[in-house]
Amino acid sequence: MSSVLVADPIDICALDSYNSDFKDAVAFRNYNNAANASQARVQNHYRNMRSNQTLGFLKKMEEKYYSFDKCEMSVWEAFDCLGGYVDASDPDTENPNLLHMLQTAEAIRKAGYPDWMQLTGLLHDLGKIMYLWGTEEDGQVGTANGSQWALGGDTWVLGAAMPTEGIVFPEFNQLNPDMANPEYNTKFGIYSEGIGMKNLHYAFGHDEYMYRMLVHNKSKLPEEALMMVRLHSCYAWHTGKNYRHFMSEDDKKLEELVLKFNSFDLYTKSDETPDVEALRPYYQSLIDKYCPGKLRW
Question: How many helices (H) and strands (E) does the chain have?
């Protein structure tokens, strides 16, 4: 893939023109709200993530998934499979992921951003479809009460010291076996300065899988769309401002783009239910343009 960004820049200030329809920002990503009924579920999710997500686990998941031999189906067939899936790591919504993805895509569309970014909003969580092939051991039993620690949740860089600030539940870092390994628990770990965010290893989940799946299927989405998919859950980087020592010059622009995308991903979560069937023809046209036909999953 080329490292050249799209010629026409996108500007998040258009978000302000209709931001009044969104919940207040403080209503989101509250991981310490004892009154929130989902708090125990979310804490358990992150405890399991930190306890199990290692470089060794990542290699195991790469071997399991990156041959893309599980099935062939269209994007909308995948949506149908994910229709009832609710993310156990998310304290902000109890809506199925399909509705959240449509909310994200519609907000991007209303703000007047390009069709490729609208489709990215629709696709960004679709990698959670891995629950179809998951096991309890792999942290991918995609039910409201089953393991999801290798499907959703904020990601971080594997193979280097985990940040103690700008990351949710840093108290769980000590549970990670890699942090007892001197090869992995230093500032640079297995990497070098300025290596670039695209050359790092991340905790495994829907982001990394969907990114790899789009690349494997030769999606026509631009590279920055693919990186939005890959890094949208790496809050420790784009919001927590960690891993600056790994960033290349291109990553400064990439960070800006991911933050713009995440403004729509986060602040559009609401109890309003999009009309899936009414929206389907429009988004099918984008799918046909960028990710047509049957894809390998």
Answer: 10, 4
Residue 202 has phi, psi (to 5 degrees) of -120, 155
Structural domain contains residue 27: no
Alpha helices by DSSP H, listed for 161-295, are: 206-216, 223-231, 235-238, 249-267, 276-290
Overall number of domains in the chain: 1
- % of the chain surpassing 90 pLDDT: 72
The two structure tokens encoding residue 145: 């009460």
User: Is 17's pLDDT higher than 80?
Assistant: no
Between CA 47 and CA 24 the distance in angstroms is 28
Domain extent for 140: 33-296
Residue 240 belongs to a domain: yes
Residue 223 inside a domain? The answer is yes
Task: Residue 92: name the closest of 237, 271, 273, 274 by CA.
Answer: 271
The answer to which of 5-19, 51-65, 119-133, 212-226 has the lowest mean pLDDT is: 5-19
